[in-house]
Amino acid sequence: MHLKAYSITEATRKLESYCAYQERCHKEVVQKLRDMRMIPDAIDQIVTHLIAHNFLNEERFAQSFARGKFNIKKWGKNRIVNELKKRDISRFNIKTALKEIDEDAYLETLDALSKKRLSQISATNLQKRRKKLADYLLYRGWESHLVYEKLKELIPNT
To answer: What is the full per-residue pLDDT of the chain (158 aa) written as tens digits?
Structure first.
């Protein structure tokens, strides 16, 4: 297997289009450059170029990530925060990213998601239904106090 060697110019062009295609975080870009067998000095030089020319912007990445995971995957804030932390996003940028999520839309989404999931749970035992719904919502990163309020509302104690 022959690995292609890239000049800094070639690698820079390749990474510009990689970043232009969709928002990337620094960690993904550095990994991509390592996979291309670039040396650390070249990696630093290329990352600096990408930041200077606005191909790489971690705040923009975090905002786009939060919007996408909430709107498309219906993730809660805990899951979004954890996934951003895994990508080494700063606390400041995580805070900024969470501001992208409208509070009313957040609660409406939790309500719709809870009702949809509840209709899919076949268990008849109330405790089992409650546990299955709670597990599902918590796994998706919804805050526990919101989940338990929703459980009380949708599966009240009889």
So the answer is: 556 889 999 999 999 999 999 999 999 999 999 999 999 999 999 999 999 999 999 999 999 999 999 999 999 999 999 999 999 999 999 999 999 999 999 999 999 999 999 999 998 999 999 999 999 999 999 999 999 999 999 998 76
Q: Could you tell me which of 27, 153, 9 has the C-alpha nearest to residue 86?
A: 27
Distance CA 45, CA 89 (A): 20
Distance of CA 53 to the CA centre of its chain: 24
Note the pTM of the prediction, 2 decimals: 0.90
Cα 52 to Cα 18, 35, 56, 61, distances in angstroms? 16, 23, 8, 15
Per DSSP, the three-state class of 80 is helix
Backbone angles phi, psi at 38, to 5 degrees: -80, 145
Crossing angle (nearest 10°) for helices 144-154 and 126-139: 150
CA-based radius of gyration for the chain: 21
